Here is the input.
Amino acid sequence: MNRALSSAYMLGSFLFLGACGNDHAPELESPSGSSPYYPARGDGWERKAPEDVGMNRERLDEAVAFAEAHETSMPKDPGRYLRERFAGQADQEIVGPTQKRGGVNGIVVRHGYIVAEWGDTRRTDMTFSVTKSYLSTLGGIAIDQGLIESLNDRVSSYVDVDGVDYFDSAHNSTITWKHLFTQTSEWEGTLWGKPDTADRRRGIDRALSPPGTFWEYNDVRVNLLAACLLHVYRRPLPDVLAEEVMDPIGASDTWRWHGYRTSFTEIDGTEMQSVSGGGHWGGGLFISTRDHARFGYLFLRRGRWKDRQIVSESWVDAATTPSEVEPSYGFMWWLNRNRERFPSATSSSFFALGAGSTSTIVVDPDHDLVIVSRWVEGEQVDGVIARVLAAIE
Here is the structure.
């Protein structure tokens, strides 16, 4: 039964209504007061001269030059990078596909129009933990559609993975959807051959805290969220992403979402692969910069694309609200409320980040702006943002 129109869900002390697929919602207005521009499918994305959207061309050129001059030192072969960082032990073997990365590239979108573009923005590359923001969005759509009634529900009441109850221990049984989305679950166990300790403070032995009280960036637990959503949707998440998000926003057909060779499960008699939410052991979302820009623009427009509400505004608000435990993190989106992540960005900006910020989507509602930066050294991304903002007149 679809309960989206009859149920509400809680986020902390806030109540958010799950309103899915409202084709009659009022059209959002751009800063100029007119209806916002949405690009056509594929390459049908209109360009504007910087001066036509209130930006200085020379300063924007400086931002592009800065990005091109600060390519990351990350190896061209991500497999080498992953082996050095995450695969030094037997339980951390790379089990998903990898792909050599491209060169520095990026795009700047203001008021929906492309105003700057550099490098090969059509190349499909690994995107590492940017994948988490896409995964989170599928969670929002599951809430909107009533497949998940409440973020505060225990996951154990929804999911039985491979006939094994991953939430049967006293510790794991209290884990809620909200805990998984905020990376505060403290889940303990092994999934797809990877124990949670493989990514628990990078193998540092520590006592577990009660779910909801300790934040940790842990890909095993993110992969658990992906597996749980697979069992909620009961069909492969790449198919759900294509149907619910990527096709409606006019993305290309070049992106792929991979799991591990070990992450197959049977649902309703059909074998399906559970995808990974990052790239620590390979896999994750392989996607172009242009498709990233569309995804970022969807969130700039608060989940709306033309006449369709892809994901509810209430989910966009929830996903970009600081968690109680980690104020710089929402539902797998990085936040900037205290200007900690990128000091040059506005406090209302939020980000999808991967591989030490070498893969970055910046969403800046204050300036009606999206920036996608690929393969710039992580600590230099703030310099790109600063120069783009300096171009706004």
Q: What stands out?
A: Residues 219-233 form the longest helix (15 residues). The mean pLDDT is 89. The CA atoms of residues 143 and 149 lie 6 Å apart.
